[in-house]
Amino acid sequence: MGNDAIRITDARTDAQYELPLFKGAVRAMELRKIKTGPDDFGMMTYDPAFLNTASCQSAITFIDGDRGILRYRGYPIEQLAQHCTYLEVAYLLLNGELPTAAELKEWVGAVTYHTMIHETTKKFLEGFRYDAHPMAMFVSTVAALATVYPDARNVLDGNVRALQIQRLIGKVPTIAAYCYRHSLGYPYVYPDNDLAYTENFMNMLWRMMERRYQVNPVLARALDVLFILHADHEQNCSTNVMRAVGSSQADPFLSTAASAAALSGPLHGGANEEVLKMLDEIGSKQNIPAYIEKVKSGQCKLMGFGHRVYKNFDPRASIIKWTAEQVFEVVGRNPKLDIALELERIALEDEYFIKRKLYPNVDFYSGIIYQAMGFKPEMFTVLFAIPRTVGWLAQWQEMITDPEQKIARPRQIYVGHEARDVVPMSKRTSGALIPSD
Ligand code: CMC
Question: What's this model's pTM, rounded to 2 decimal places?
Fold first, then answer.
């Protein structure tokens, strides 16, 4: 047997199988060869929550969770955050290489051309209740773009895909800003195509009656860096949704909305909002030990801590801490930072967190910066969704053009009833299994 195969003995039959390896992994379909007899369906894997299943090959993002490494297309996240703009990184994720000056100019022009949203989409947004959660508005409005661009359904045409990608990247900041203004009851500010990506976003968020809103360059750069850090993160929950929904050849607006819905959950992108609620609940440093005890006894989680892949440190969290310092120099220090730092210090010395390899993730400090910049916690996950849109689209594009991919359709292990007959209503007894806590 070579190094590129494994040999398995089936203890049920004593039969031996040699299964070839593909890039160090076993193709799950190879396991089907393992059967107890001709009528046997063949072996499957059982992997709830995909703890150990690679669902695709990808050349976009590399993570080494044990060493705290994150790279986009081979470039370390630290270098990208230091030297590039968000739109350069977006180009890199989508096209595989950093743009030349001419390519960047064309790309920025294309994205900027698509920043406006249709007036009917604006009216659609106006229909939301005054207290609607911005993330729910964002998800719904991104989905509603499908009503404006029916051509997007032609997902197998590369030119059509490229156009929708530009539209989405151009429009998500506009939608996000309109959601924000809607929740405050302020009139919407149209995009200003003379401004750079994050500057335009800030203008749409915060411009009031002044002739020209003065964007603070330090805050604009900080937001750009935060966008770079959030742009992609390989096969996370929402990206997996993008690939799964997109595999049915649904249009990219609907697939992106589905991914944003996945992001909204508190275990994923929604964690940044939860971190702020948690810091509010803790209130002051002296309450931290009691809160840690609550976490350890299983009453709640330490939000912004832990990660499926990072088991050492999240490199994004380190860059965010550094970015926070720049922001605080402009807007003043957010007092919640002191609680967060102390919480981190105590948690990292505690056996519970050490044993489980729980470290601060990207969401632990991002909310503190966003709040210092003037955002309400409900907006935090929307701020995550804007840059992650490019990651979703890069992964979608890769999935659609991968000849090995098909409609995503997992197997199950059926544990329900055997076949049984419907009885008349008069003979039925109550006993339905209604799930409850
Ligand atoms: N606080 C307390 N205990 C935790 C936490 C936490 N934040 N995270 C994990 N654990 C415990 C968990 O209870 C389990 O303990 P035990 O072995 O005793 O049962 C152990 O650590 C392993 O956790 P797990 O649930 O098997 O880990 P997972 O890989 O399934 O979950 C996670 C990863 C990120 C969902 C989880 O760590 C978590 O819920 N964290 C809090 C929410 C959060 O910050 N999410 C943002 C993730 S990063 C950015 C993003 O994805 O958007």
Answer: 0.95
Q: Give me the residue spans of the domains in the chain.
A: 1-45, 61-268+376-400, 271-372
Q: How many CA atoms lie within 13 A of 238 on its CB side?
A: 32
Residue minimizing CA distance to atom 47 of ligand 1: 268
Q: Which of 284, 267, 273 is nearest to 370 (CA)?
A: 273
CB of 147 within 8 A of CB of 231?
no
pLDDT tens digits, 263-285 = 999 999 999 999 999 999 999 99
* Both tokens assigned to 290: 């009691």
Dihedral through CA 356, CA 312, CA 324, CA 218, nearest 10?
-150
417 assigned to active site: no
Please provide the CATH number assigned to the domain covering 61-268+376-400. Answer: 1.10.580.10
**Per the residue annotation, which of 114, 230, 307, 314 is the catalytic one?**
307
Q: Which fold has domain 271-372?
A: Cytochrome p450-Terp; domain 2 (1.10.230)
Element spanning 340, H or E: helix 336-348
Q: How many CB atoms lie within 10 A of CB 371?
A: 20
